[in-house]
Amino acid sequence: MAAIPQSPLASSGGCHKIRATLMKAAVCTRYGPPEVLQLQDVRDPVPGAKDVLIRIRATTVTPSDCYIRSAIPSARLAMRLMARLVIGFTRPRRPILGAVLAGEIEAIGRKVTRFRVGDAVWAFTTLRMGCYAQRTCVPATLKLLTPSPSNLSHDEAAAIPGGGLMALYFLGKANIESGQQVLVYGASGANGTTAVQLAKCLGAEVTAVCSTANVELVRSLGADKVLDYTKEHVSALGRYDVVIDAVGLRKTSPLKVASRNALTPAGTFISVDDSLPRFRRDDLIRLKELAEAGRLKPVIDRRYPLERIAEAHGYVEQGHKKGNVVITIAD
Ligand SMILES: NC(=O)c1ccc[n+]([C@@H]2O[C@H](COP(=O)([O-])OP(=O)(O)OC[C@H]3O[C@@H](n4cnc5c(N)ncnc54)[C@H](OP(=O)(O)O)[C@@H]3O)[C@@H](O)[C@H]2O)c1
């Protein structure tokens, strides 16, 4: 009989309540197409004295997850080698992918005082990943682990941290001030739908660029003006203090190219692909506050159960999702 894989995050001892059971997880044991993600029974992780065990109720599939699963076959060799040094040379070092979670604390280590069993939390686990599973175990001090917004379901909460942390980071780099003209290019993805809402929260006058199918969605998020990149001539562009490229450098159009020349003399063009973002716990807390104040709404395109995660990856990989694709994780 095949050995039952151990969760990559398992640690031992020190917890008030130790489970010795199995959980469902989507496991990625080699790089490849979405079908390499296999639903398996995996040993439950066991929290150490300073860890919390989280029952994950929802996660998301992001373009980054697809890059990791496929090891970016379309990238240049040097880039692929660098990526593999980080994520695992011949196969993913951490076979349970997924970096966003919403759920609740199921058990705590004996030295943990920051959380209690039953607390609703959300987290961004970065390269630790481990969120495509019913449970994960992380240090209670994990930087990007906080209580989740009290007014959102787990599915809704999961739809915020990925795009929210990215948008906060890149808008922060742009130092947006109230009254400034801001163009959000690619306003319909996870980053874009959040960037539009956050730029409005900062008091900017927001022009959003998306395709015909997403015009109404983007307008409903508060954009003052919406331009359709499939139809609009570049002469429709105004002058902008800040242009945020929310979809990355590979997705472009004549409107995006022209937007670089539509900046004011002191204007800034920032792409989400410009640098590796640095996230702070305060950013996650800010997202919670904005969500609870009703100023930041989750945008969910589709929901898939964990059992259909390969299908979700196939959809996200097409590059046309609206906001977020959420994975729900049942008992
Ligand atoms: N720096 C980093 O470390 C880092 C980390 C994570 C992500 N990223 C970047 O962030 C990107 C976006 O991620 P995401 O999840 O927000 O977006 P996404 O979901 O991948 O973007 C999909 C959206 O982009 C729109 N789109 C596709 N082609 C477009 C084009 N040519 N012009 C304008 N919009 C277009 C799609 O709608 P239509 O097709 O209908 O237009 C869809 O709504 C990633 O692909 C990656 O490049 C960077």
Please explain how this structure is put together.
There is one protein chain. With 331 residues, the protein is α/β, with parallel strands linked by helices. The protein has nine helices and 14 strands. It has helices spanning 63-70, 77-87, 154-158, 161-174, 190-201, 215-220, 254-259, 281-292, 309-317; strands spanning 22-28, 37-43, 51-61, 100-108, 120-124, 135-139, 145-147, 181-185, 205-210, 225-228, 240-245, 263-271, 300-305, 324-328. Strands 3, 4, 5, 6, 7, 13 and 14 form a seven-stranded mixed beta sheet that branches. A five-stranded parallel beta sheet has the order 10-9-8-11-12. Strands 1-2 form a two-stranded antiparallel ribbon. Strand 13 (300-305), helix 9 and strand 14 (324-328) form a beta-alpha-beta unit. Helix 4 packs across helix 5. It binds NADP nicotinamide-adenine-dinucleotide phosphate (NAP). The site of NADP nicotinamide-adenine-dinucleotide phosphate has 29 residues, from helix 1 and helix 5.
Structure summarized in a few sentences:
Helix content is 25%, strand content 27%.
Regions with little confidence, pLDDT below 50 for 5+ residues: 8-16
Number of helices: 9
| SSE pattern, N- to C-terminal | EEEHHEEEEHHEHEHEEHEHEHE
Taking all Cα atoms into account, the compactness measure Rg is 20 Å
Q: What is the straight-line distance between the termini?
A: 25 Å
Number of strands: 14
SS class = alpha/beta
For the largest beta-sheet, the strand count, sense and barrel status come to: 7 strands, mixed
Mean pLDDT: 94
Instruction: Name the overall outline.
Output: globular
Helix content: 25-40%
State the assembly state of the protein chains: single chain
Assess the beta-strand content as a share of residues.
25-35%
List of distinct ligands in this structure: NADP nicotinamide-adenine-dinucleotide phosphate
